Amino acid sequence: MPRRTRIHIDGLPLHIVQRGHNRAACFFDDQDRRAYLGWLHEALMRERCRLHADVLMTNHVHLLLTPEEAERVPQVLISVGRRDVQDVNHINGRTGTLRDGRYKSSLVQAETDLLLCQRYVELNPVRAGMVADPALYRRSSSQANALGEADTLVTPHALYLGLGDNEETRRAACRELFRIALDDQPLGALRLALNQGQPVGNDRFYREIEAMTGQRRELRKRGRPRKPDEPPSADAAGQGELPL
Question: Which domains does the chain have, with CATH numbers?
Answer without folding.
Answer: 14-203 (3.30.70.1290)
